[in-house]
Amino acid sequence: EVQLVESGGGLVQPGRSLKLSCVASGFTFINHYMAWVRQAPKKGLEWVATISSSGTRTYYPDSVKGRFTISRDNAKSSLYLQMNSLKSEDTATYYCARDDWFAYWGQGTLVTVSS
Amino acid sequence: VQMTQSPSYLAASPGESVSISCKASKSISNNLAWYQEKPGKANKLLIHSGSTLQSGTPSRFSGSGSGTDFTLTIRSLESEDFAVYYCQQFNEYPLTFGSGTKLEIK
Q1: For the stretch A79-106, what's the b/e string if a residue is b when 16 or more beta carbons lie within 10 angstroms of its beta carbon?
Q2: In the list A26, A37, A67, B63, which could disulfide-bond A2, CB 3.0-4.6 Å?
Q3: pLDDT for res B27
Q4: Half-sphere exposure of A45 (CA within 13 A, CB side)
Q5: Which of A59, A62, A101 sits opposite B48 (nearest CB)?
Q6: Mean pLDDT of the region B17-45
Q7: Contact A109/A4 with Cβ under 8 angstroms?
Q8: Secondary structure of residue A98 in the 3-state scheme
Q9: Is there a contact between B100 and A44 if contact means CB atoms under 8 Å apart?
Q10: Do B88 and A45 touch (CB under 8 A)?
């Protein structure tokens, strides 16, 4: 059974940093691109980042480019999202997803950016 | 690519059929997926490649369209189908979602 379990969310002040993690199981992690998607409270879904299976290629929307960094450790079947210079508009539940049509999603971890 | 999804809200009764539209601001070929969102559950991929049912998706769900216009149709609604639905294009970065359609019981 495919499982994606996110962690690392919490309350953080504007301008600070936070690192999210996602541990994958039930599939061969190294074979798949992976992604982060977020959902602000009462809002829709927004794609945040994608990383290639080897980790050599990354993709971001303009809203987070230069502030967020996606990375992975294939030996640990783990995906990460380093979030710097956080803003209030980054408040959201962050999901990791397997990037083959986002066929699998985690349950999410809540990030709240507030002073 | 902007994804315009409509309607944003839909009320229907069990047994009825409904359709949700998703329009892309430029051609995305058939690189479109549909998801279902329910409280307390992981988001579920229903359809990919515009019309291919994901394994486990009931056959009452269908997707159609290519290019810029896409439709998700649910025939004979069941109680478990009342949820929020999103479309998403995978044709190019940045990946973009529609704004969602909330399907409620009438």
Answers
A1: bbbebeebeeebbbbbbbbbbebbbbbb
A2: A26
A3: 98
A4: 32
A5: A101
A6: 97
A7: no
A8: strand
A9: yes
A10: yes
Contact criterion met (CB below 8 Å) for B96 and B5: no
Report whether pLDDT(B79) > 90. Answer: yes
- Which two tokens mark B69? 């216009």
SS3 B2: coil
Q: Measured between alpha carbons, how far is A64 from A94 in angstroms, rounded to an integer?
A: 13
Residue A66 CB partners (closer than 8 Å, separation 6+): none
Per-residue confidence (pLDDT) for residue B86, from 0 to 100: 98
Closest CA to B34 of B2, B69, B62: B62
Whether B66 has a pLDDT exceeding 90, the answer reads: yes
Closest alpha carbon to A18 in A10, A29, A28: A10
pLDDT of residue A100: 87
Contacts of A4 in chain B (CB under 8 A): 42
CA-angle at B90, arms to B87 and B91, nearest 5° = 125
CA distance B103 to B48: 20
Which among B44, B86, B93 is the nearest to A45, CB-wise? B86
At A85, list the tokens: 């210079």
